[in-house]
Amino acid sequence: MTTSNNRNSSTSSGGTDEGPLVTKGITAGPGGVMTVEVGVITGDLTLRTTQRGNQAALAIQYDDADEWYTVHNSPADIPASKDLHAVHQAMIDAVKKGGGATAPN
């Protein structure tokens, strides 16, 4: 599993945008990840998390694929006590667990 961070911070409408954080090589647990476009996907996946103000936009794809899918319940609020990295890690943990994982809340 590899993670990269492409920081792109700028001020817009009162918040900063950061990301994306990208982690490749996450093996989904039984039941996979629920997406908006195609339902559940399973297998070896790549997660992309991008900050938009106080929310995290979460997208997932099959490793080395071109098409990204929106994780169900994305964008997710970023709690005041956490940051983008914490939301990204929570989603990685959810993907590994499976069960039709959705964006953390």
Question: Mind explaining what this structure looks like?
Answer:
With 105 residues, this protein is mainly beta. The protein has one domain (2-97). The chain has one helix at residues 84-97; strands at residues 2-5, 11-12, 15-16, 21-27, 33-35, 39-41, 44-52, 55-62, 69-70, 76-77. Strands 1, 4, 7, 8, 9 and 10 form a 6-stranded antiparallel β-sheet that branches. A two-stranded antiparallel ribbon has the order 2-3.
Salient structural properties:
1 helix, 13% helix, six-stranded antiparallel β-sheet, two-stranded antiparallel sheet, mainly beta, 105 residues
Helix-strand pattern, N to C?
EEEEEEEEEEH
Q: Provide the residue-averaged pLDDT.
A: 88
Helix content: 10-25%
Q: Which regions have little confidence, pLDDT < 50, spanning 5+ residues?
A: 6-15
- Counting DSSP E segments of at least 2 residues, the number of strands comes to 10
Distance linking N and C termini: 24 Å
Find the structural class using helix and strand composition. Answer: mainly beta
Region (Disordered): 1-28
Biased composition (Low complexity): 1-13
Summarize this structure briefly:
This protein has 105 residues and is mainly beta.
